[in-house]
Amino acid sequence: MARYRFHCTNGRECVFDAVGNDIRAPHRLVRRAEAVARDVMRSLGEAGNWAEWHVTVHDLRGRRVLVRPFLSVDPPAAPERPRRGRTARGGRLRGGDVLGQAA
Fold first, then answer.
1. Tens digit of each residue's pLDDT (9 = 90 or more) over 76-95
2. How far apart are alpha carbons 54 and 51 in whole angstroms?
3. Cα(66)–Cα(2) distance, rounded to whole angstroms?
4. pLDDT score for 47
5. Among the listed residues 76, 71, 42, the one whose alpha carbon sits nearest the alpha carbon of residue 54
């Protein structure tokens, strides 16, 4: 098992992986790089154009072993928005309303 670091950049901004991940099989590097890209897209949200972003994977000696563009990754699923419709009590929901549970 080897440890790899997954850094993300668009050439101007960087998200560094100071800890890294232990990866048993090298073919799993691509899946982990894609998961890291989705996490960065989710955390930075509307940060801009993902076409310029990529994940670079480095071993502990600092050698680059993989580069994966963000655009090769399916974007993270958007959080579900409340649907318009009737509540259990028959009241209407407005577009941004969220129902909470009564205490």
1. 665 555 445 444 444 333 33
2. 8
3. 14
4. 59
5. 71
Distance CA 50, CA 36 (A): 13
Structure token digits, residue 51: 């076409």
Closest CA to 58 of 10, 12, 20: 20
Each residue's pLDDT tens digit, 5-29: 999 999 999 999 999 999 999 889 9
What does pTM read for this prediction? 0.69
Domain ranges, ordered by start, for the chain: 2-72
Residue entry with tokens 């101007």? 12
3-state secondary structure of 67: strand
Q: Which amino acid is present at 102? A: A
Give the bridge partners for 4, in sequence order.
21, 59
